[in-house]
Design a protein that fits this description.
The structure is a single chain. The protein is about 40% helix and about 10% strand. It is an alpha/beta fold. Among the domains are: about 220 residues, no CATH class; about 100 residues, no CATH class. It has a 5-stranded mixed beta sheet with strand order 5-4-3-6-7, with helices on both faces. Helix 5 packs across helix 13 and helix 8 packs antiparallel against helix 11. The longest helix has 28 residues. It is extended.
């Protein structure tokens, strides 16, 4: 009923009270909806809170904990040998009164009692000034920077700059904390603004590091196996996406306002001939990517099956339970091959048997449960396109997207403790720096030294000596 003045005037008191109560209930519901929308619009909010958050610690089946190995002794290290003998009263058992059998155990303690030695180069630059027109000429030297004058007269070297940038872009330390850590560890004074400006100049189009960034994108596009994933990001408080592309020795990041197949092909190219490992995102289902060899993440499928099975009972659980068993069997078979427990021929032969079992379980048929029918259609569609069991023929592609998820994890942590990027320049700087540092970490053991070499004009290393 339309609530006009004329209509309300003819209603009884009880009818008006009923209308007021109904409007009050509606108002409370709308206020609750507004609160949920405001919370959902907060940076990276999922809109809901976990009623039972996961417990910290490693889950069962993730492997054994390993002790920290003894440090490798280098020629420049100072080694102090110390012994800790048993006391005379502790050499016999107090209960049995027999001598104890002694063995030796080596433990180590690493420390840096003194700071690293600084190397200071003082350059006396001869400057010539015309007394009439004021033309200036400055002397040249190989160690003299192109703009090393005025406010930039005193600069830090590549090693110090690489160390400072690594603390932020590689180790995840907030940029405002880097000057304090550098002063405490090296005694060298830096400022947050100087680091931010230096990083921006290095990563901008035409900058010293941008050419390496472009080179790595081309390398990813030409790789045989690539894993990709994305996560949320913000540029000037606007929702964006941080996309990552990973191979065995290369990582490439880019930040875009949208995550469509166009952004994926921007990196891989339309003629990508390798194998792509992905999750179940819609961006990878575009027609432009139909001809790509693709492996869907089985971990995501297992999670979807478990979520549906948790809501079912009786025979409605059979479909998800049997399919989960087959997928886990396929995972175990791939892991056995990676451990060297079978050859390639036996691997593929057993893979054909598992694929035949998947063919039977994902055959077109009528299932009484609606959720199971939805799962059957979606998973069978991927299986028919060869995107469910590709790894059973080509073991070089992993059956999960774990590589990409691990590659994005440091960026996710950085996102949670920062405001992401303030502008487009900052977003590009983060993408370039993260790309280079992650790639160097995959290829080298000493990331700081390798990055310092890039700042000196060296090429990207294919691999570094330990």
């Amino acid at each position: 009923m339309e609530l006009t003045r004329e209509a309300l005037q003819h209603l009884s008191k009880d009818a008006l009270i009923d209308i007021i109560l109904a409007m009050n209930v509606r108002l409370q519901a709308l206020e609750a909806e507004v609160r949920e929308l405001k919370r959902a619009k907060a940076p990276f909010s999922k809109g809901t809170r976990q009623s039972a958050p996961k417990k910290p610690g490693r889950r069962a089946g993730q492997g054994l904990f390993k002790t920290r190995p003894a440090p490798e002794i280098k020629p420049t290290d100072r080694v102090i040998e110390v012994t800790a003998p048993l006391a005379a009263d502790d050499r016999r058992c107090p209960q049995c009164d027999v001598p104890l059998v002694t063995t030796a155990e080596v433990v180590t303690s690493e420390d840096m009692p003194t700071q690293a030695v600084r190397e200071i180069t003082r350059i006396q630059v001869e400057v010539g000034v015309c007394p009439r027109c004021g033309l200036r000429r400055r002397g040249q030297h190989a160690k003299l920077g192109a703009h090393q004058c005025g406010a930039n007269a005193h600069q830090v070297g590549p090693r110090v700059l690489a160390h400072a940038l690594a603390l932020h872009y590689d180790s995840g330390l907030p940029l405002r904390r880097v000057p304090q850590v550098m002063a405490q560890t090296t005694g060298i004074t830096l400022t947050q603004s100087a680091l931010s400006q230096s990083a921006g100049k290095l990563c901008e189009d035409g900058g010293l590091l941008h050419a390496h960034y472009t080179e790595l994108r081309s390398r990813v596009a030409g790789s045989a196996v690539v894993n990709t994933d994305d996560t949320g990001w913000r540029v000037c408080a606007t929702l964006a996406f941080l996309m990552g592309f990973f191979t065995d020795d290369t990582a490439y990041y880019q930040i875009r306002t949208r995550h469509r197949h166009q952004e994926v092909l921007e990196v891989l190219g339309k003629d990508f001939g390798g194998k792509l490992g992905t999750d179940r995102g819609k961006s990878y289902e575009a027609r432009a990517m139909d001809q790509m060899a693709m492996q869907k993440c089985l971990s995501h499928l297992l999670k979807n099956l478990s979520e549906v099975a948790a809501r079912k009972s009786g025979r409605a659980k059979v479909f998800s339970r049997e399919l989960k068993a087959t997928l886990r069997e396929a995972l175990a078979h791939w892991q056995a091959y990676q451990r060297g427990e079978c050859g390639i021929e036996s691997y593929r032969e057993r893979g054909r048997e598992i694929a035949a079992k998947l063919d039977h379980q994902l055959r077109e048929r009528a299932l009484s449960d609606a959720d199971n029918r939805r799962l059957l259609r979606g998973i069978a569609y991927q299986h028919e396109r060869g995107r469910l069991a590709l790894f059973l023929k080509h073991p070089e592609i992993a059956p999960t997207n774990n590589r990409a998820e691990r590659g994005l994890r440091p960026a996710v942590i950085a996102r949670k403790i920062s405001q992401c990027s303030k502008n487009e320049r900052g977003a590009q700087t983060y993408a370039v720096m993260k790309t280079l540092f992650t790639t160097l970490r995959l290829r080298c053991t000493d990331t700081v030294s390798a990055f310092a070499s890039l700042l000196r004009g060296a090429s990207l290393p294919t691999a570094c000596a330990g």
